[in-house]
């Protein structure tokens, strides 16, 4: 272990750390909950969600007993909804198969759904004082710069190399504090753009600073091409101000969330091309008369990790009642993607349909 590295890091952390609710406890439920929420999510965005979850579900028993739709609704807006589904599944698993108590070591924690190397290391070190090093985006950045490592962080070789180095550096007497310190240092000081290297606690030994490579590290292999998809949501409005939504049951983005009937096209649709689409005709032929209006002139771009969605909402007035229709004012009761939530908020407010 490089004792000097850990000593500097922990000293900086104790003077500069943010006061966050999950740092005041070693309860594995609270730590696990915070780590799942903070995957792919900044602390500022994740903190209100953590507080909502810990208030609504004070214990893992409460979370396990909740309906999945309640969990998804509470998660709405955080994205990567598989995290919420895995969160719920793991809660039920821990209650049923572990008597409500989390496994107390890194190896067994890895058996839980949605818990990978990083989360297992965080829980094991913070809650059980096991010397299991965390490696996330912040850690990659800190280690690659200080030690001048140019191995791609999104390669198998890179992941093994950085994990081994992180494990070598961890303080076995204070593994939880060490792990939180290196994550905090990466998040708040050794930041992606324009870090204050001249005042850094490691500037006398940082390879990237000495060789002027800070901006180029860590190194990542280029991702594949981003897939473009064209979504057309059909917002039916009946004579009694009701609409229709459906649940996405297939695997893929937004599984188990609700949406308006969807027609996906190969390119951006116009009214003419949409009304000639077979899927559109199947959804609208059941009505005697439809009046269609394009709601947003330019598609709304919604960026996901591997795909970009170009979305148009189409308002379709029908002069009859909808079977299984719901009041527009009740859509907020359902878990929907943030893209649809934003539309609902704007559309209902503009058209005074909330009441």
TrEMBL record:
Its EC number is 3.2.2.31. Keywords: 4Fe-4S, DNA damage, DNA repair, Glycosidase, Hydrolase, Iron, Iron-sulfur, Metal-binding. Its cofactor is [4Fe-4S] cluster. CDD domains: ENDO3c, NUDIX_DNA_Glycosylase_C-MutY. Pfam families: HHH (PF00633), HhH-GPD (PF00730), NUDIX_4 (PF14815). SMART domains: ENDO3c (SM00478). Residues 37-188 form the HhH-GPD domain. Binds 1 [4Fe-4S] cluster. It catalyses: Hydrolyzes free adenine bases from 7,8-dihydro-8-oxoguanine:adenine mismatched double-stranded DNA, leaving an apurinic site. It comes from the Bacteria. InterPro entries: A/G_AdeGlyc_MutY, DNA_glycosylase, HhH-GPD_domain, HhH_base_excis_C, HhH_motif, MIG/MutY, MutY_C, NUDIX_hydrolase-like_dom_sf. NCBIfam families: mutY (TIGR01084). Belongs to the Nth/MutY family. Adenine glycosylase active on G-A mispairs. MutY also corrects error-prone DNA synthesis past GO lesions which are due to the oxidatively damaged form of guanine: 7,8-dihydro-8-oxoguanine (8-oxo-dGTP). This is Adenine DNA glycosylase. It comes from Patiriisocius hiemis.
């Amino acid at each position: 272990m490089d004792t000097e590295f850990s000593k500097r890091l922990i000293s900086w952390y104790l003077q500069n750390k943010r006061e966050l609710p999950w740092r005041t406890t070693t309860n594995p439920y609270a730590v696990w909950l915070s780590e799942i929420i903070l995957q792919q999510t900044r602390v500022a965005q994740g903190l209100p969600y953590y507080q909502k979850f810990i208030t609504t579900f004070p214990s893992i028993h409460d979370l396990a007993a909740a309906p999945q739709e309640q969990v998804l609704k509470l998660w709405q807006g955080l994205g990567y909804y598989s995290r919420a589904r895995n969160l719920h599944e793991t809660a039920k698993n821990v209650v049923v198969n572990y008597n409500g108590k989390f496994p107390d070591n890194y190896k067994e924690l890895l058996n839980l759904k949605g818990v990978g190397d990083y989360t297992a290391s965080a829980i094991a070190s913070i809650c059980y004082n096991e010397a299991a090093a965390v490696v996330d985006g912040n850690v990659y950045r800190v280690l690659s710069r200080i030690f001048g490592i140019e191995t791609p962080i999104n390669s198998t070789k890179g992941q093994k190399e950085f994990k081994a180095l992180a494990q070598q550096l961890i303080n076995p007497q204070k593994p939880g504090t060490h792990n939180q310190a290196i994550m905090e240092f990466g998040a708040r000081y050794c930041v992606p753009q324009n870090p204050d290297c001249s005042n850094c606690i490691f500037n006398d030994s940082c390879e990237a600073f000495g060789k002027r490579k800070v901006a180029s590290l860590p190194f990542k292999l280029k991702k594949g091409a981003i897939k473009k998809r064209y979504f057309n949501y059909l917002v039916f409005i009946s004579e009694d101000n009701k609409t229709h939504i459906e649940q996405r049951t297939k695997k893929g983005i937004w599984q188990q969330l609700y949406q308006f009937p969807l027609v996906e096209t190969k390119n951006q649709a116009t009214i003419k091309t949409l009304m000639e689409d077979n899927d559109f005709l199947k959804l609208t032929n059941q009505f005697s008369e439809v009046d269609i209006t394009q709601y947003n002139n330019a598609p709304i771009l919604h960026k996901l990790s591997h795909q970009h969605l170009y979305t148009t909402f189409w308002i379709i007035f029908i002069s009859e009642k909808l079977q299984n229709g719901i009041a527009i004012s009740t859509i907020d009761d359902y878990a929907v993607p943030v893209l649809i939530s934003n539309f609902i908020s704007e559309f209902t407010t503009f058209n005074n349909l909330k009441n």
